[in-house]
C-alpha cells in the first residue's frame, strides 16, 4: 500500500497497543503510539471518511512507529488518498502526519511536502485537536498532489538524454544518492510495473520512489521533500524543469 520498512517489522494495531510508553519528564511527555493512531482514526471518521486499508510498522524495539491509512475520499479511480503517520519514543522525531496518494496498480506512495504535526509532548485532548487541524491542512495537500499527478501523466520526456540529465539533477538537489543515478535510470527504462512504460514525468517519479524504498526513514524524508520540489508536488514550479 505504500509503507516502507527498511528496518523493523510490519505489525497490527494490537501489537502496537502493547508497546510501553516511556515515563514523562518535566520537559518531555512521549505520546503513546496507539493514541496517535486512535486520534487520526477518530478524526477520519468525523470527516465521514472510511479507512479502506491500513499498514503499521515498528522499528528500534518499538521506539519508532510508522503507518499509512488509505481512505476513500478521492475523485480518481487510479489512486486513493492516504495519510502517513509516525511517532517516536526515543526523541528521534515528533509525532507527524502527512498527505499522500497511493497508486493502486503498484502500491507506490507519493507523499506531500508537509508534515503537519510537530509536537514532542502533548496531552490526549491536545493531540486530538492537533490531529483535527492537521487533517484539515492535509485536504489542501491532497488537492495539490492530485492536480500535479494528473499533469505529470501527460507530460512526456523528450529523450533518454533528458531522462538522464533530470536524474543527475535530482541527485544534485539531494533527492537520491549519487550511487543511485544508474538504478533510477534502469527503473525508468524497464519499470517494475507495466503501467509506467510510457516515458512520462509520472513514470520518472515512480522510478525515483521505487529506488528510495531501500533508504532509512530519515533519508526517505529528505528524499521525498526533494522529490516534491523536483516535480512540483509542493505546489511550486518543479525544480527539475526550471
Short summary:
It is built from seven helices and six strands, in the order βααβββββααααα. It is α+β, with helices and mostly antiparallel strands and 242 residues long. It folds into two domains: 131 residues, no CATH class; 87 residues.
Tell me the layout of helices and strands:
Elements: E1 9-11, H1 13-17, H2 33-46, E2 51-59, E3 64-71, E4 79-88, E5 96-103, E6 108-111, H3 124-154, H4 160-173, H5 181-189, H6 201-211, H7 217-231
Antiparallel strand pairs: 1-2, 2-3, 3-4, 4-5, 5-6
Textual characterization of the structure:
It contains 7 helices and 6 strands, in the order βααβββββααααα. It has a 6-stranded antiparallel sheet with strand order 1-2-3-4-5-6. It has 242 residues and is of the alpha+beta class. Strand 2 (51-59) and strand 3 form a beta hairpin. Helix 5 packs across helix 6 (201-211). The longest helix has 31 residues, at 124-154. It folds into 2 domains: 9-139, no CATH class; 155-241.
Structural class: alpha+beta
Order of helices and strands: EHHEEEEEHHHHH
Instruction: Please tally the β strands and state the result.
Output: 6
Order of strands in the sheet with the most strands?
Answer: 1-2-3-4-5-6
Radius of gyration: 18 Å
Distance between the termini: 32 Å
Beta-strand content:
15-25%
Q: How would the global form be characterised?
A: globular
Keywords:
17% strand, six-stranded antiparallel β-sheet, 242 residues
Amino acid at each position: 500500500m505504500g509503507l516502507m520498512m527498511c528496518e523493523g517489522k510490519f505489525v497490527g494495531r494490537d501489537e502496537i497497543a502493547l508497546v510501553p510508553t516511556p515515563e514523562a519528564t518535566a520537559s518531555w511527555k512521549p505520546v503513546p503510539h496507539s493514541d496517535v493512531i486512535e486520534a487520526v482514526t477518530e478524526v477520519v471518521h468525523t470527516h465521514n471518511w472510511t479507512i479502506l486499508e491500513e499498514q503499521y510498522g515498528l522499528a528500534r524495539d518499538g521506539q519508532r512507529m510508522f503507518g499509512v491509512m488509505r481512505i476513500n475520499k478521492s475523485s480518481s479511480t487510479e489512486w486513493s488518498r492516504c495519510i502517513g503517520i509516525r511517532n517516536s519514543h526515543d526523541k528521534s522525531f515528533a509525532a507527524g502526519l502527512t498527505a499522500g496518494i497511493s497508486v493502486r496498480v503498484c502500491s507506490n506512495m507519493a507523499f506531500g511536502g508537509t508534515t503537519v504535526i510537530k509536537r514532542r509532548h502533548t496531552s490526549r485532548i491536545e493531540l486530538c485537536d492537533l490531529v483535527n487541524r492537521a487533517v484539515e491542512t492535509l485536504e489542501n495537500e491532497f488537492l495539490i498532489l492530485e492536480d500535479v499527478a494528473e499533469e505529470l501523466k501527460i507530460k512526456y520526456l523528450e529523450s533518454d538524454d533528458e531522462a538522464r540529465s533530470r536524474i543527475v539533477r535530482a541527485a544534485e538537489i539531494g533527492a537520491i544518492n549519487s550511487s543511485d543515478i544508474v538504478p533510477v535510470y534502469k527503473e525508468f527504462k524497464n519499470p517494475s510495473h507495466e503501467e509506467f512504460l510510457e516515458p512520462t514525468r509520472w513514470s520518472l517519479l515512480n522510478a525515483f520512489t521505487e529506488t528510495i524504498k531501500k533508504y532509512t526513514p530519515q533519508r526517505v524524508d529528505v528524499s521525498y521533500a526533494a522529490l516534491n520540489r523536483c516535480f512540483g508536488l509542493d505546489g511550486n514550479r518543479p525544480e527539475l524543469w526550471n
